[in-house]
């Protein structure tokens, strides 16, 4: 089955995801910029980042609860967002030098996945849980991955270091960052 999105022929549009209920999320452009949208059987709901100076908002993923994730851009760069039927939440992966947060997917438990650039300019993955905690990761042997993880048989000490994850909790509008090791994998903690 083929579904045509209900936009005029001269409007550039792209679908980015579909929910289990058939809602389509994506982006379209017009003279004012690029906007995220949700298509509910031909009824379009536009999502624009509720942040000053934004001209680009992209919808990329949607869950069964119709919560949309994506990214928006302004003079400060790209940032992630979630939109739960009008309740807009903007976020960035915390940490000095981290930029270009892009949210690509959300599951029914409201866990968001995406990418960001670290301080060295390497692309990394992130997972953001519903409480606002982040875990940053990159595949072993990816460019810029810590040397401890690139050997075929890392030592026990380097395996403990590799278990380090980045967790973050939003607190009074601030973005404190704590680096923690996973105690399930590191018995010395």
What tags apply to this protein structure?
four-stranded antiparallel beta sheet; 189 residues; single chain; disordered C terminus; 1 helix; globular; 47% strand; mainly beta; 4% helix; Methylamine Dehydrogenase, Chain H
SSE string, helices as H and strands as E: EEEEEEEEEEEEHEE
Q: Which shape, going by the Cα principal axes?
A: globular
Please outline the major beta sheet: 4 strands, antiparallel
| Low-pLDDT residue spans | 146-189
The first-to-last residue Cα distance is 54 Å
What does this entry show, briefly?
The protein has 189 residues and is mostly beta strands. The chain contains 1 helix and 14 strands.
Report on the structure:
4% of the residues lie in helices and 47% in strands. The protein is mainly beta and 189 residues long. The protein has a domain at 13-141: Peptidase/esterase 'gauge' domain (Methylamine Dehydrogenase, Chain H, 7 Propeller). Strands 1-2-3-4 form a 4-stranded antiparallel sheet, with no helix packed on it. It starts with 12 loop residues before the first strand and ends in an 8-residue tail after the last strand.
